[in-house]
Amino acid sequence: MKARVTVTLKTGVLDPQGKAIENGLASLGFGGVGEVRQGKVFDIALSDRDAEKARADLSAMCEKLLANTVIENYAIEIL
Amino acid sequence: MKARVTVTLKTGVLDPQGKAIENGLASLGFGGVGEVRQGKVFDIALSDRDAEKARADLSAMCEKLLANTVIENYAIEIL
């Protein structure tokens, strides 16, 4: 089973990397670009055959390693 | 209009960061985790009102700045 975990910064948390990309796009001549925020995506192969179990495992992985839940949100998608 | 661009490594390109996460998960006691690959996600606010135009703009942004198309794939999603 494959899953995708997306980790994004919570609203209100400063994102200097996103800001740099925003400025980079503007200086490349891309107009009309508003806020840019960067996040991370993890594609994970799991041996779980049960989607509910996989979701619970992934949630624990996010809490323990993949995301800093103080400043980041995570979303789990079973593919 | 909001869009999400997901940039992932092409198949076959080594991903040491993903490998490190894989090992980290294993040492935290998560069994049954296969390959982990890490990618990037960009949430971009656009002033475009036309989805086709937005998609073309985002594609150009990926080619020029957001992705290294030699080793990375990108996917555009209009939200």
UniProtKB/TrEMBL annotation, chains A, B:
Role of this protein: Part of the phosphoribosylformylglycinamidine synthase complex involved in the purines biosynthetic pathway. Catalyzes the ATP-dependent conversion of formylglycinamide ribonucleotide (FGAR) and glutamine to yield formylglycinamidine ribonucleotide (FGAM) and glutamate. The FGAM synthase complex is composed of three subunits. PurQ produces an ammonia molecule by converting glutamine to glutamate. PurL transfers the ammonia molecule to FGAR to form FGAM in an ATP-dependent manner.
Entry annotated with the keyword Repeat: no
InterPro entries: PurS (IPR003850), PurS-like_sf (IPR036604)
UniProt keyword Nucleotide-binding, yes or no: yes
One Gene Ontology biological process: 'de novo' IMP biosynthetic process
HAMAP family to which the protein is assigned, alphabetical: PurS
Catalytic reaction list: N(2)-formyl-N(1)-(5-phospho-beta-D-ribosyl)glycinamide + L-glutamine + ATP + H2O = 2-formamido-N(1)-(5-O-phospho-beta-D-ribosyl)acetamidine + L-glutamate + ADP + phosphate + H(+)
EC top class, as a word: ligase
Its EC number(s): 6.3.5.3
Protein family (similarity comment): Belongs to the PurS family.
Organism: Stappia sediminis
Subcellular localization(s) per the UniProt record: Cytoplasm
Pfam families: PurS
Protein name, as recorded: Phosphoribosylformylglycinamidine synthase subunit PurS
GO molecular function: ATP binding; phosphoribosylformylglycinamidine synthase activity
SUPFAM superfamilies assigned to the protein according to its UniProt record, in alphabetical order: PurS-like
Subunit (UniProt): Part of the FGAM synthase complex composed of 1 PurL, 1 PurQ and 2 PurS subunits.
Top-rank taxon, per record: Bacteria
Gene (UniProt): purS
Pathway field: Purine metabolism; IMP biosynthesis via de novo pathway; 5-amino-1-(5-phospho-D-ribosyl)imidazole from N(2)-formyl-N(1)-(5-phospho-D-ribosyl)glycinamide: step 1/2
